[in-house]
User: What shape does this take?
Amino acid sequence: MPITLYQDFVAEFNKSRMSDAATARLAALGEASLTYLSGRDQRDLISRVQGKSYFSFEENGKLTRPVNADLFQNTSDGIGRFVDALREVRVTDLPPEEITRACYTIAMGFSCVVDLKKQGDQKTPGTFFEYFVCHLFARQLGIEPKTRIDVLNLDRPASLPTDWIFDLGVDQPKFHLPVKTSTRERVIQVWAHQRVLDGVYGHGRFLGTLACLAETKLGHRKLEVVEICLPGQWRIYQLFIAQMHRVYYLDVPNAYERLNHVFPRIRVRPFGEFFHEAQDLCAMA
Amino acid sequence: MPITLYQDFVAEFNKSRMSDAATARLAALGEASLTYLSGRDQRDLISRVQGKSYFSFEENGKLTRPVNADLFQNTSDGIGRFVDALREVRVTDLPPEEITRACYTIAMGFSCVVDLKKQGDQKTPGTFFEYFVCHLFARQLGIEPKTRIDVLNLDRPASLPTDWIFDLGVDQPKFHLPVKTSTRERVIQVWAHQRVLDGVYGHGRFLGTLACLAETKLGHRKLEVVEICLPGQWRIYQLFIAQMHRVYYLDVPNAYERLNHVFPRIRVRPFGEFFHEAQDLCAMA
Assistant: This one.
């Protein structure tokens, strides 16, 4: 049932990144995932992540990816309040923590349904998360994104396929929004794409804004959860490739949270804060 | 049998990147792969690549990756001559085309054995190719490579994991050698790593040298071979991220060969030419 609702959401999303119809499908999908998961067992995991506890949903001996017990909400009240606010473009009425929890519940809920219903399918949760975050940005900013931009070339036309680009218009910044469920080594691509945009359009024109779900990994033998992070490499990329303006996580990894306080400063924030600071970012504050 | 010889090669390679023992294991592996494949059927494929023809080895209905009929040698004479020359550091006695054919036969031969003997194993051919190319560079340059280098940092020590780095010493260039069986979108990582090296050590200190096997793809339904290339993106990376000094292919894709003749010029060469121009590259000619 949630899988069908996911396909409905994708169909609407492909018509328009920011339509009311897509928002409605998203709400239905979020609630259906919760309903499905409410009938499954929850298995506590051993958390090796300081200050966080995790569990997995379980069905026929199959375990989902680790779910942050503090962020995931077992009832759909939070999703309902968030989606209503999203529809009426008043998400900032909600505190950032509540936005983060509602978005985490929608993204993680559907991912867990896929973990239980399909075998080794990483692509569907990844695509869903990408579309989900794009839809939220499009609604908040009131803009349809692009995924290809022209590149100046003296001899012949050239264009570059990109992640989501939100262009706020003349004398306004443009958001460059890569979206990943988790990053690992592949994250260097994000900085490299930002470098190309900076090189072609000049520094500061595109605000590099990376959105991620989590960096947790479940060791199936001991049922232990760890966070896989490469903060030393992120700092090298931020110093020598390009500068990302923000990194938003639904479940902020401890090692990346600390990058807010060292040099080079990388601003890693809980996802819900985007909605509250979006206006300031647009004003390039 | 070739799989065991592969493990022997890896064991020697892990002791020293450039030992005679590793070269001997490589020769044995190359010959054993040919012997194994000589007992298999060859199935002609429909080539959609201009000027090249391809076939697959076949066993129990399983097809290997596409093999370039002009580059692959069915007898081990060429491998023997190349390995003898490699041992005696006189590879340049052989013409570049013969070097390329011998290396193609070794790399592709073992990859095809893995395609037939294992199910969906991309990792073993990838690792073998990486070690194989590293061994050839190490023997030719007479240097053990590194895979981690220090990065200047005012506050605390930092180091960067890298592809193979060959450091020729004071006032000499250093080779930055990423190795890939094929590239696709992930290739942006190669330019991004080069950018970090340029940023940390200054432009021109590291010669970016990418080594690849091929960019062929076999469509299993129609048994058609195509080359998957992104030349427009390579040009953008070369303009706006960093400059790769050479790209060597065992089977040079047509679309990348043309990059030798447009702006920005990217020097894409058959692999065998490395040995002939290595001395000039070291002299930064």
Summary: DSSP finds nine helices and 14 strands in chain A. The mean pLDDT of chain A is 94. The first helix of chain A runs from residue 2 to 15.
